[in-house]
Amino acid sequence: MRTDGLSKCGRIGLMLIVTLISSFATGQNANTGEIKGTVTDNSGAVVPGVRVTIMNVQTGVSTVATTNTAGIYEKMVSASSSAMA
Length: 85
Known about the structure:
This protein is an alpha+beta fold. Helix content is 31%, strand content 33%.
């Protein structure tokens, strides 16, 4: 019976180590982010095909996203000081 107890402790320890390693790996991606939103008109209806410009105010670099048929746009960007124009 003692080996069963050690086996359970070993599994818990392994799960803890895997969790810690995965959290460190996730933390390495802190320099990117995602900007996502929906474009609507004054009546609240979604607007497809709209070009949304996203600009990094520190670097002046901009990128464009276009809304889909549901009016949704999304873009992976550098997380440092992006603003929508």
